[in-house]
Amino acid sequence: MKKTTKKLALLLLALTGLASCNKWLEATSSTQVSDATLFSSRSGFQDALCGVYISMGDEAEYGALWTWFVNELSYGPYAQQFSPLFTAIQNHEWSGNYVNPLIARMWQAGYYTMANINKVLYELDAKPEVVSDRIERNLMTGELLALRAYIHFDLMRMFGLAQLQEGDYEKYTVPYVTTYDKEPTPQRTYRETLELLEGDLDTAIELLADDPVRGKASEAWLANANADGFWDARDKRMNYFAAQALKARVLLFRSELDAAAAAAQAVIDEATAAGAYRWIDADAMTKATSNDEIDWTFSSEQLFSLEVTGLQSLTDLYIFNQLGSGSSSILVDKNVVDVSPYNLASIASAEDVRGPALMLKFFGNQYRPYKYYNNSSYYAGYRNRVPMIKISEMYLIIAEVAAEKKDEETLLQALTEVRSHRGIQDPSPVNTDPNFVSPNYWFSGVMMEYVREFQGESVGYYAARRMPRKARAWLNIDNDWLFRITSLTPYPYPTDELSYGRHQDL
Known about the structure:
Blueprint: H1 2-7, H2 24-28, H3 35-38, H4 42-56, H5 70-75, H6 84-90, H7 100-126, H8 134-158, H9 190-207, H10 219-224, H11 240-253, H12 257-274, H13 282-287, E1 302-307, H14 311-318, H15 334-337, H16 347-351, E2 360-363, E3 366-369, E4 385-390, H17 391-404, H18 408-419, H19 429-432, H20 442-453, H21 459-466, H22 479-486, H23 495-499
Antiparallel strand pairs: 1-4, 2-3
Helix pairs in contact: 4-7, 7-8, 8-9, 8-11, 9-11, 11-12, 11-17, 12-17, 17-18, 17-20, 20-21
């Protein structure tokens, strides 16, 4: 991180030709601008905020490595391919020549984005007269603080523990950077780091109280401060509900189970009342006559997503290539799918749009995942989206807590609600999934639901890191895949960080 923070040359100072943040930069930025010029106007701060999202969508961060590439391949039910890189990731060879450079990039990308966030926060604080509207200023600051918490939290889990127990709080974790300067940030314990992270998150939630996503913004404000539409399409940026959902994630990480379930339920209740999401129409998806018409990432259910303009070129290379001689692709293993998690002997699995009923398409002798389908003719409202938080995750958090507490009624209610929107005619897992014949197997069933629901989104990766100790009683699961999940370990700190005196407590 010492090297990363020394760079401090903002990505957002070279905005030419970039399009993201609802195409805002495409419309407002045509030339490179200096730091002083950028932060001299309200539109400059808007561009700077959009620049943060561009940074997050980089290939080394949520555009690929943190979501559907390294994190996903490391735990998911994917077939072995010719690629030595794929094989090294699947075998968790973190220190080898293939994976180690990618892990270093993942670390550097996260802290690079943090430098951008801290720079914009610094300028907002230093120039209150530039963004003079109180609500808009609060929204910008709240977004940035919540994003800082979001990224740090993922770094903490990728390079550290996936869930804290009582004796873990005094161990050291990744640096939590809150300032824009060249001085290296010291490591702190999980206890101290979580105080900073939750402080950012709680402040962000307060500042985002007037978020238009809640449907409470006044007509006067919308007519004035949002006359340019900058605060539209809130699901494509960090917002009030996404910050609340992140709070539920953090509480689960802390093993504060009742509080995590309550926080998840609060998000469900308020987001539902505000009309902040809409469940997909699974029946319409299966009847669509063109791939270009299908909402593959379930965008209507996303509380927060990223718009990644380079997504098609990345997925064309790693998912949708034609598998010529010696080439590799991210393909789901047919031998695993046909047994678990999509047991094709089960009627429910045959109906589930997340599996071979729609999203997994037979290709060669494996299945190709279509979640990140993209091309120039794809419906623009669905294109280039990487889900960051979906409403279904809140139900899965409730289900996981219920499994821990042996609360069968709540467990089945939460899972049934999600499954009822996935094309399954009898969505209660107790009737169709052998994992629910006994409480001993519930965690296996919940883990399979994470795998089905969050393929390519990293949520399953964190669940796999968190749950194996509770889910040893796997039913009908391929032994190679079982080993891949249960042997999953944190990524090692980059060599540079260790040479600067960092230490990785596990």
